[in-house]
Structures are given as structure tokens and as C-alpha cells.
């Protein structure tokens, strides 16, 4: 083979080698791309699975009640809230249902503040004494606030009932409430009225006098007024109606008989 033949053969081999190398490189790139795509797809699938699992767990948590910590909390309070004997005594008076409700509210409050009270009362934080002391103060203060709020329940209810009455004393419900309260004020000696004048007055005028009398007594004798209103509310809550006595019942009967045509729309006022 002459020189030109060898030159042609070498050139062909170089071209073939270059083409083979190009195709091999391309093949390797395709393989790497497929592996990368598979890896990315697997990673994406894992992310979706994890998010789905988290969502399922979150939804399940909404329908899974927290374990009842009432007994654990009571035992913990007896040991850890020794600086506030009044709170300990109050907790001891709660029924199981009341204790369960209190601990449930406490646990929700603590979760809103960023910690689980169960970890505190079950000793999971024992190795962090400063943290335990700080969270114990929070629980103690929450218990103190709850105790004081419960003590004000009656006063709040008295204010709410009176305020609601003042908003619309002429509504049917408030007319009945006002007449009942008026009867209680009369029986307690905090209000009086001329019986004959009262019986001959129109229903509208009687209601106006009742409202004025209630406002006057509430302003001039707030403590006695609150006690009278408390008795009315207790009777309503305990018996479903308010029982009055003496002259109040007698006046009711007389007013009903003398103003029978108005009895349905304007229940009689006792005096």
C-alpha cells in the first residue's frame, strides 16, 4: 500500500473514532439525564408523600382528643403550687368534670404559648430547672386568673342581666324580667308604690314606672340592688321561674283581675 492509501485509511479511522466518541458521550449524557430525572422524580414523590402524611396526621389530630391530664395535673399542683395554698384549695373543690374542663383550657392556652403542659407536669423537663420554674409560674398565674374569674361570675351575670334589660326594657321578655325584679325590690323594702294608683294606671305607664324604679334603686342602693337581682337570677336558673311572696303575689292577682283585657300583652306588675 502506498503513501496515499495509508493516508486515506488513517483519515477514515480518525473520523470513525471521533464519531464513535461523540455517540458514546451523547449516550452517557442521556443515561445521566435519565438517572437524574428518575432521582428528581423519586425526590418529588417523596416530598408529596411526606406532605400528604403530615396533612393526614394534622387532620387526625383535630379529631383525636388529648389524653385526660386531670389526675396528673392535680397531683402535680399539690407538689408544685405550694406557694399558693388558696389555689390548691380551690382546685381540690372542683368536680372531675370541672377539673377536666379547666385542664383542657389550660392545655390549649399553653399550646398557644408554644409548649405542652403535659411535658411539664409529667416531668419531661426535669433536667431544665430554670425552664420548669418559669413555666410553673405561668401555670400558677393562669390558675390564679381562672380562680378569680370564677369568683366574679355572679357579678358578671348580674351586670349582664341588668345591662341587657336597660337596652330594651319594653320587650316582652324584659317586661316580664322587669316586673319580677320590681316585685323582688318591693319585697325587700327597696321600692314602694301606691297600690290603687298602680292598679288604675295604663300598662305603658306601669312599665315606665317599673323601669324608673329599677334605675333609681340600682343607682342609690347598688349593693342591695345586686343582691335582689342575684336572688331573681338564682330563682330563674334553679326553678325556671321567680317566686315572689306577700304583697307582691297579692298585687299580681289583683292587677290580673282588674286589667284582664291587657293581661296577655302586658303581664301585671306587683307592688
User: What would you call the shape?
Assistant: elongated
Q: How many β-strands, per DSSP? A: 0
Low-confidence stretches: 59-63, 240-271
Helix content: over 70%
Structural class call reads: mainly alpha
Largest beta sheet, briefly?
none
Please state the average pLDDT score: 75
- Topology as a string of helices (H) and strands (E): HHHHHHHHHHHH
Distance between the termini: 142 Å
Question: What Rg is obtained from the alpha carbons, in whole angstroms?
Answer: 41 Å
Write the layout of secondary structure elements.
Layout: H1 3-63, H2 70-80, H3 85-93, H4 96-112, H5 117-121, H6 129-151, H7 153-167, H8 172-187, H9 195-200, H10 203-220, H11 222-239, H12 247-258
Helix pairs in contact: 7-11, 8-10, 8-11, 10-11
Structure write-up:
This protein has about 270 residues and is an all-alpha fold. About 80% of the residues lie in helices and about 0% in strands. It has helices at about 5-65, 70-80, 85-95, 95-110, 115-120, 130-150, 155-165, 170-185, 195-200, 205-220, 220-240, 245-260. α7 packs across α11 (about 220-240), α8 crosses α11 and α10 packs across α11. The longest helix is centred in the first third of the chain and has 61 residues, at about 5-65. The chain is elongated. The protein starts with a helix and ends in a 13-residue tail after the last helix. About 15% of the residues are buried.
Amino acid at each position: 500500500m502506498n503513501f496515499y492509501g495509508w493516508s486515506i485509511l488513517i483519515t477514515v479511522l480518525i473520523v470513525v473514532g471521533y464519531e464513535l466518541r461523540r455517540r458514546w458521550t451523547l449516550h452517557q449524557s442521556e443515561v445521566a439525564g435519565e438517572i437524574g430525572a428518575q432521582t428528581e422524580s423519586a425526590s418529588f414523590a417523596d416530598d408529596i408523600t411526606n406532605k400528604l402524611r403530615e396533612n393526614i396526621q394534622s387532620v387526625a389530630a383535630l379529631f383525636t382528643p388529648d389524653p385526660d391530664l386531670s389526675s396528673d395535673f392535680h397531683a402535680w399542683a399539690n407538689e408544685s403550687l405550694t406557694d399558693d395554698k388558696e389555689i390548691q384549695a380551690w382546685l381540690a373543690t372542683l368536680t372531675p368534670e370541672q377539673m377536666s374542663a379547666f385542664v383542657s383550657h389550660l392545655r390549649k392556652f399553653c399550646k398557644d404559648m408554644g409548649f405542652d403542659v403535659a411535658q411539664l407536669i409529667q416531668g419531661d423537663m426535669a433536667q431544665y430547672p430554670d425552664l420548669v420554674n418559669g413555666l410553673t409560674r405561668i401555670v400558677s398565674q393562669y390558675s390564679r386568673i381562672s380562680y378569680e374569674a370564677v369568683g366574679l361570675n355572679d357579678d358578671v351575670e348580674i351586670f349582664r342581666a341588668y345591662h341587657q334589660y336597660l337596652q330594651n326594657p319594653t320587650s316582652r321578655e324584659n317586661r316580664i324580667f322587669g316586673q319580677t325584679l320590681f316585685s323582688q325590690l318591693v319585697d325587700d323594702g327597696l321600692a314602694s308604690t301606691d297600690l290603687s294608683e298602680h292598679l288604675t294606671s295604663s300598662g305603658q305607664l306601669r312599665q315606665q314606672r317599673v323601669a324608673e324604679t329599677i334605675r333609681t334603686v340600682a343607682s342609690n342602693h347598688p349593693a342591695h340592688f345586686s343582691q335582689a337581682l342575684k336572688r331573681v337570677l338564682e330563682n330563674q336558673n334553679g326553678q325556671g321561674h321567680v317566686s315572689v311572696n306577700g304583697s307582691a303575689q297579692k298585687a299580681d292577682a289583683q292587677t290580673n283581675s282588674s286589667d284582664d283585657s291587657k293581661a296577655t300583652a302586658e303581664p301585671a306588675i306587683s307592688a
